Fold:
Amino acid sequence: MDLKVDGGTDETTALLSSHETDVADDKPLKKHSVFGDFCLFPSSVKYLVWNEFCERFSFYGMKTILALFLLERVRLSETQATEIVHLFIVACYATPLLGALLSDCYIGKYSTILYLSLVYSVGNWVMAFAAVPSPDEVSVFPFWCTMLALGLIAFGTGGIKPCVSAFGGDQIEWSMPDGESKDRLRRKFFSLYYFAINAGSFISTILTPLLREDMSYATAFAVPAFLMMIAVVIFWVGRKSYVDRPPEGNVFPIVGRITADAFRLRNVRRRVYNDGAENESQTETKHWLDAAKLKHDEDVVEDVKTLLQVLLVLIPAPLFWALFDQQSSKWVFQACEMDGRVAWLGGLVIQPDQMQAMNPVLILLMIPLFDQVVYPILEKIGLSLKPLQRMLAGMLLCALAFLISGLLQIAIESHASTTSDFNVSTSLLLNVSATVDSGKQISILWQIPQYILITAGEVLFSITGLEFAYSQAPDSMKSVVQSFWLLTVAAGNLVTVVIVAMIEGKLTKANEFFFFAGGCTFAMLLLTWLGMSFKYKSSLAPLPVKEQGIEDA
Structure:
């Protein structure tokens, strides 16, 4: 996009402009599934999808076994391990703002992704080195080497997060195949992008616990490190096919000046409105930022208004993530108290950290299910949901998942000395010499209902939020707004760390789950209130449910 400089001011007026040179074709999309449209995407998208698959394999493979590694090899307590896991997630989702600034303001998306991916890859190999055991099975550099590795990984993965999704969106915006609706194809891209994320997550979540159990932690961390190297190579190979928009300068000083001038000129602007308005109600409808139009280009001010409107409705989002990311901590520890043996599957033993694989496998099933079944049915009965409404439904399901996990925790504690019906039938298929450990008499499979609910909530909340943040952002701030969306994940995990530290020893494990469910319910009410005044950009009117993919206000 060419930059247009206003002769009456020294700032770039198109810096935040939402106007595009491309005009979407009005022809309707054919009735393809998300995956049937893969051939319609620019070739550059395919490199990004495979890159994302390998990168997410690397990240989730490492993250899946992290809690138990800290517990068993670094010798931390359960509470300390929980805090470090969530602080690591905080870092992963706080650093996207740095990556967004680099990409949108200085070196562009391609260079940011490439350089920070290399940092990411180094961090993975440091993690594998940190897990190399000594003869007494204690890591050679158990704590500080692990912290260094986690820091590099957090900076690398966090820095590229907003850039990859926005970079993929740019390929659709500026290389859209003729005859296709840009908005609808973009929504399909985000569903496919999210599918690739969870395909990589699913495979690694199954594989790395097996490597941990059968080989070593060092091997289990080395495999994700190798996949990250492959991700870098795939991304580099596609370099000639990418549309890489040049950075357009630092937008934050302009946003700051407009905000400050709006406050300073508000009284002057109010007098102008009062003189020109026909009645009092006409004056009251003016936005407080409109005062800045006395000094700044009108389009720039409108973009800042759009930016602040989007950020405002993201305020409740951290409460969703505060619950969601406990799958890798509290839910793993809950699984440790349960019986992982499944006799009717040939004596298969499910490891506690393997239960996390339920989330990505359910995502792989639910994305096409929602796209091809749930949304069309809702459309037929007149319940086509707008993005914020879908996100509200996702938060409700997340709260219900934690309600169920709390009830399950009560059952675990009450059955410490009583065999459940499931294990009675299981014990008949086991060798007669087998014994059931006290406190592990409820099958680990009873966690499945809570995983189903929280995954359905993720489909409704996270994928919708990802596309919502991109589509509603001003053109030159796509990565920045994506980073704020990801920042809600960091804030949510920080909330978890603070709350866990505050309530440790004061609530039972079951009541902790109920407490978080109540917090998510409060966030739902807040989002409902904020969403009532939200105005969508015209390109995102009520979404055609057949064309809209939907985790991640």
Q: What stands out?
A: The first helix runs from residue 43 to 72. Confidence is low (pLDDT under 50) at residues 1-35, 277-285, 419-438, 539-553. The first strand starts at residue 341 and ends at 342. The chain has two domains: 38-250+307-540, 252-296.
